[in-house]
């Protein structure tokens, strides 16, 4: 079964919200063995949505429209689907009952315009929405399948996985699923990774692709097979070969994060940590404390943005600041030692740098960052020169700090 997806909403075209539904849809369809060949974003315009549906119907077996099922004037999906297929809109009794019950259970008056959500193209059936007022729409017409799902991500995900995909099983003739394993790499750039695995990129089943992410490279291994177990059997030999070639740089797979892997190692070794940050403004502490249970190992974070804080709390001396400057190896080391001593932890990390866009000089350009670790009195420093905008430099600096810590702990 071949699918196309149409995402409606002017806010998507303007970049005002991120289309997380697109990634989730592709992942879930792949698991179900449904190939999605095209995704289209259309603004809130009736004729353009109709045209997108008609064009998709010429190519695909399954057309999924996301968004535009609300009760307002710019919610146009049901009208567009009916118009694209030349079908009248009719009120669906069970959809009407769902909408009335939704408001009744919450002891809220129902605005009359909400009954618009009970209008369906003739022959369509509703998909239950346990989280909102808008039922989904499912229609089989002239040998094609059409599904309309609500735009809010929580409603979209539940309706897709619990209502639409089980319904599609009776229509699917595919006996295969598509399964992917993602290996995550730190400390190497995309070209360096590709150089080590160039000969492995030409396979057909499984396939291998490189994906660049801020501060990381992801390698996606994808196999088609009759079930997950068979797909894993295809993936394992290739995964083993990749791990042998890149073993010093692979920190995890699939849903792993570098901060999560570091947290697991700190917990396993019974070690504690404190961080002192300047240019990253607390981002490293934020990432570390995003991990559930991080209070077992993370004790303290200091944002020493002003030099007075470096002097008063972290033991950075006026002599070092005068002779080496705030962005220097010596200051990063002093910050790591100072925060470790202040917090009484096993490990201290110090970060200082220039995130930009201003503040750089020929000797110390924007993107220059020094990172230091004090591990029970043993220290190491890394100098980095990052490219990118301010937020990218901050993220890459924290990624480099986590990379240093990961290598220290696993070593």
From TrEMBL:
Identification of the protein by name: Putative competence-damage inducible protein
CDD domains: cinA (cd00885)
Source superkingdom: Bacteria
Annotated PANTHER family: NICOTINAMIDE-NUCLEOTIDE AMIDOHYDROLASE PNCC, NMN AMIDOHYDROLASE-LIKE PROTEIN YFAY
Family to which the UniProt record says this protein belongs: Belongs to the CinA family.
NCBIfam families: cinA_nterm (TIGR00200), molyb_syn (TIGR00177), PncC_domain (TIGR00199), PRK00549.1 (NF001813)
Location of the MoaB/Mog domain: 4-170
Cited HAMAP family: CinA_B
InterPro entries assigned to the protein according to its UniProt record, in alphabetical order: CinA (IPR050101), CinA-like_C (IPR036653), CinA_C (IPR008136), CinA_KH (IPR041424), Competence-induced_CinA (IPR008135), MoaB/Mog-like_dom_sf (IPR036425), MoaB/Mog_dom (IPR001453)
Pfam families per the UniProt record, alphabetical: CinA (PF02464), CinA_KH (PF18146), MoCF_biosynth (PF00994)
Gene name, Swiss-Prot/TrEMBL: cinA
């Amino acid at each position: 079964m071949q699918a196309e997806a149409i995402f409606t909403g002017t806010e998507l075209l303007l970049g005002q919200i991120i289309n997380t539904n697109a990634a989730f849809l592709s992942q879930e369809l792949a698991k179900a063995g449904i190939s999605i060949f095209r995704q289209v974003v259309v603004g809130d315009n009736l004729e353009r949505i109709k045209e997108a549906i008609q064009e998709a119907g010429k190519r695909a077996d399954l057309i999924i429209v996301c968004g535009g099922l609300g009760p307002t004037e710019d919610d146009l999906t049901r009208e567009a689907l009916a118009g694209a297929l030349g079908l009248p809109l009719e009120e669906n009794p069970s959809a009407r009952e769902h909408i009335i019950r939704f408001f009744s259970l919450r002891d809220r008056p129902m605005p009359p315009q909400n009954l618009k959500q009970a209008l369906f193209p003739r022959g369509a059936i509703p998909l239950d929405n346990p989280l909102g007022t808008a039922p989904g729409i499912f229609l089989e017409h002239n040998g094609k399948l059409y599904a309309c799902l609500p735009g809010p991500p929580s409603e979209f995900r539940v309706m897709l996985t619990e209502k639409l995909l089980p319904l599609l099983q009776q229509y699917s003739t595919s006996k295969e699923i598509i399964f992917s394993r993602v290996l995550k790499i730190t400390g190497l750039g995309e070209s360096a990774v590709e150089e080590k695995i160039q000969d492995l990129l030409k396979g057909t089943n499984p396939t291998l692709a490189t994906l660049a992410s801020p501060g990381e490279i992801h390698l996606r291994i994808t196999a088609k097979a009759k079930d997950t177990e068979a797909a894993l059997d295809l993936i394992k030999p290739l995964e083993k070969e990749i791990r042998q070639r890149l073993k010093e740089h692979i920190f995890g797979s699939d849903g792993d994060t570098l901060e999560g892997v570091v947290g697991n190692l700190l917990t396993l070794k019974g070690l504690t940590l404190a961080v002192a940050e300047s240019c990253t403004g607390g981002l490293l502490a934020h990432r570390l404390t995003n991990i559930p249970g991080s209070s077992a190992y993370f004790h303290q974070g200091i944002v020493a943005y002003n030099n007075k804080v470096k002097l008063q709390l972290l033991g950075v001396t006026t002599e070092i600041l005068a002779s080496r400057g705030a962005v220097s190896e010596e200051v990063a080391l002093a910050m790591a030692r100072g925060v470790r001593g202040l917090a009484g932890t096993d490990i201290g990390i110090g970060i200082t740098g220039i995130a930009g866009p201003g503040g750089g000089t020929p000797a110390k350009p924007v993107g220059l960052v020094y990172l230091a670790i004090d591990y029970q009195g043993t220290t190491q420093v890394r100098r980095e020169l990052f490219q990118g905008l301010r937020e990218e430099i901050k993220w890459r600096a924290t990624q480099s700090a986590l990379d240093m810590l990961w290598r220290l702990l696993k070593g």
